Amino acid sequence: MKRKTGVLFGRLMRNIMRSPDTIITVAITPIMMMLLFVYVFGGAIETGTDNYVNYLLPGILLMAIATGVGYTSLRLFTDVQSGLMARFITMPIKRSSVLWAHVLTSLVSNALTVIVVFLVALLIGFRTSANLLDWFSVAGILGLFTLALTWLSVIPGLTAKSMEGATAYSYPLVFLPFISSAFVPTETMPKVVRVFAENQPVTSIVNSIRALLYEGSIDNNLWIAFAWCVGIMAVSYFFASKLFKRQLV
């Protein structure tokens, strides 16, 4: 299975590398949002930090990943509609390899996008006191978040009837950080909005990353973030697998 998955993964990565503008396009919106908030709105937003880009970056990274997983749906949708998926299924390979190749491609391509966003953040003043263990923890959280959203993206990729339908689900995910602690402290929000913001997955993930990068208090946020990511991934994997098996009948 590993060898077959590797071959299929290589096919998808070659397509991306032949058109690197995909990664650049995914990174553009989060980077533009980061520049907008840092240089236009940052001076008017009170977060209790000396450097607003430090406060902002975790949410921007999640936006970049949410944008990137939309391409996973699109690639999967293209394979299904072109008949390529049906051909793979008839070949002597483990059928789950087809899905895992798309998932691994999403993981690697989104990691490249995150690196691009990090580099831009460094250029505009991002600084961190994180040690190596903290960085590994941040990478782990971002990886789990990517896997969770990627398995979620498999569902519309398999069921959508149009290209627009395959990618439309990612739009709410991209804007979910706006109703969280990603851009402003939740304490400044109206009560109803605050209740939602403090109990949705992005807030705990953002708070965990922020604490790891800047020596903050992680409290229970790390475990809540882990639970959200694993829960979303498990549920999405279950339904994605069911839909995929239904296509094989």
TrEMBL record:
PROSITE patterns reported for this sequence: ABC_TM2
Transmembrane segments: 21-41, 53-77, 98-126, 132-154, 166-184, 222-240
Domain of life: Bacteria
Main location: membrane
Pfam families referenced in this protein's UniProt entry, alphabetically: ABC2_membrane (PF01061)
Topology term for the membrane: Multi-pass membrane protein
Domain ABC transmembrane type-2: 21-247
Subcellular location: Cell membrane; Membrane
Record's protein name: Transport permease protein
Organism placement in taxonomy: Bacteria, Bacillati, Bacillota, Bacilli, Bacillales
